[in-house]
Batch of 4 targets.
Target 1
Amino acid sequence: MIKHFNKFSIFIETNNKQTVMENTKQEAWNQPKEPQFRPENKKVVAGILAILLGSLGVHKFILGYTTEGIIQIVISIVTCGVAGSLIGLIEGIIYLTKTDEEFYQMYQLNKKGWF
């Protein structure tokens, strides 16, 4: 038999003329939680691709910046790869030095396209 009073449950069990009473309180820290869904953080992939293939703008396409990726390719073609590679190197270093939370907020949620 279980009786509920406020936030406490009183459990009464009768065995061979003995009565046992226990106070049990439901505590929030001890309850199983549903896992929170969080989309994939692409920081490391985007950072390494920006350093290695920055002139092709692959890191822009990985992050979902199609227009910026095409602009990066055009800049690379016009400057024979010099400016595009330099931009990719700088962006790769910036991506890898940010914390996971900063990167996620800035480049995946707020969609900051350049630097």
Target 2
Amino acid sequence: MTNKTDESDAAKNKEIAWWQPAMVLLAKLSGWIAVPIIIALYLGKWLDKKQNSAPRLLLFCIAFAFFVSMLGMIKESAVEYKKMDSAIECKKVDDGGESKKVDDKAANVDKNAQIDKKL
């Protein structure tokens, strides 16, 4: 009896809540916005004090951080879009010939999930 209970508890723990991937994506994208800007603010102020160049270097650092943020968000969005596209294709299993194609896409989704865990 306890063995079945342990198996059902393990299965529940392995399942991902429906909201969890959205929150992870929100955290990643928010990080790409906040972290470069905060670094640019401190770096720009420090450079302005060191070079005695009022707001020029601060504005340059903020502009550079904006572009870094945009590139990071585009990269993260592309990765997530590929994951969603692969998951949708896996669900569209037709008869016969497409089963191998779907299996290959499922393997790619697993690889992408492993890469995300490493990051």
Target 3
Amino acid sequence: MTYNVKVLDDSAPGTDRPLAGRANFLLSQLGFHVAQTFAARLAPLGIAPNHFGLLMHLQRCEGDTQQQLADALGIHRKVMVGLLDDLEQRDLVERRRHPSDRRAHAIHLTEAARQLLPRARRVADQHEDEILTPLDASERARLVAVLQRLAVHSGYPAGVHPGLHQPAARSRHPDGSSGTA
């Protein structure tokens, strides 16, 4: 889809700027589009963006307890339990007794998750490349740096999407079922 957009330079605060000249509107517009298209691209894999984020984190911190994961991602433990329950039903994670704390469970990726993650990362990489097609490598690097600064200023931990704070999305399993009982 191609749009003809006139670049507006009327950015002085207090002026009657159109929405297309407001950074907050543009970030919201693009964020909505990116979130919707990313979810649609992950759906055939049977996962949602919040699943992808948690699986990516687990790959780096496999064996952490549910509480350690919740703390690291800054989400409530009840939300973490729901996400892990959903991933466990999809045979993507398993809970094992923690080796040093019998009251806790260590979370591990399953073989199915290890096979799924490279495919999901390719989806994410292709999606990002398509979104950033109009930008050259230097512009992409600058954009990422500016967005990282804004994320830090907003108080978000690095690499943690605020969507992880929500209960698990009910995306469809690869077998076509909804994942609900």
Target 4
Amino acid sequence: MSVGARAEQPARTLRRMTSKPAPLASLGDHFTLQQSLEAMIHHFGCDSGTMHRTATDGHLHLRAVVGQFPPPVLDAIRTIPFGKGLAGLAASRRVPVTVCNLQSDQSGDVRPGARATGMEGAITVPAIDARTGDVVGVIGIACVAPRTYSEVETAELLLCAAALGPLLHAE
């Protein structure tokens, strides 16, 4: 797994989680959002991914990235409004958004920048704060080949988002 450009923030160690979903089980007691995204990419056999946090301005802000993104795409995904692109749709709809093939999708959900990544099978899931019901972030992963994510994989990624939600919120 190659790690491409990283979000512009210090590699801050996050507090200990009491229990971790399977994709995060390989992590030690203290880890960064970047390390958790890398673990999820590896677990699901994907090639790239992003993790965004909902900021006080109501937009999603990039906190971790894995994979090679063209510079214009990386610039575009640094801040995403709710409702725009796959991450923004997952945030506004409050449900996972999946695309089997970003390159040929005709749903209208896929933005041109997503196609520029060269990825095909993608899924984004919201991280929802259990206490407030607020969307505190979004996790997205993608593969270079077409892929349909199973219900089990979707549930696992939602568990990761739920587990990481308090960490995203506390950031």
